[in-house]
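step: validate -> pass
step: tokenize input -> pass
step: predict -> running
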Amino acid sequence: MVMPIALQHLTPTYISIIGVGCVAAAVMSSADSVLLSASSVFTTNIYKDILRPQASDRENQWVVRASVVIVGVVGTSLSYLKHSVVLFWFLGAELNYVIIFPQLICVLFFNISNGYGVVMGLLAGLLLRLLSGEPSLGLEPIIHLPGCTLEDGVYVQYAPFKTISMLSAIAAILLFSYLSSVLFNKGLLPEKWDVLKVKVQHSAVPLTPVGSHRDGEKL
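step: predict -> pass
step: emit ->
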């Protein structure tokens, strides 16, 4: 907001027009990148891999187009709420810390992680975060962590509930990933229920005779 106002009042008219146009172009570029990435993630990771693996390329293109429209409408509707856009930016960063960061840690450092654990970790972290309360959204804490006190008729959490939610998400990802891996790989659950394909497929590796290998090296 500061830069367009400064361009309007502190620069000549033609400089102001060019500067505001550059700012608008940068904003639109970022906005369409977000729309396209969100729709691509939904189409590739959810619709194509889980909902309709047999979908054709043309069908996926229409899903991408519909997803862009839906995400655009939802994003535009958020701008009409009474809450500030900056508030949603902070909430988005907080959700990344509670939901995305645990998934990144588990994928990088724990080979046992799988899709079932990620889903349960997402639900566990998000549920615990919402139950801890959010004053900016008018959500009162339902879970009173140690240090939660009543001030002016409002409960205030002094415990690091965001970090607790993040660690709970990591624990849920590892626990449910291990359980799902054991249940499917040991045949305790039928393979047709394995929607996310975590069952280990042991493929037979053809053995190469030693003599032929040596002959190939000589050649």
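step: describe -> Strands lie at 149-151, 154-156.
step: cleanup -> pass
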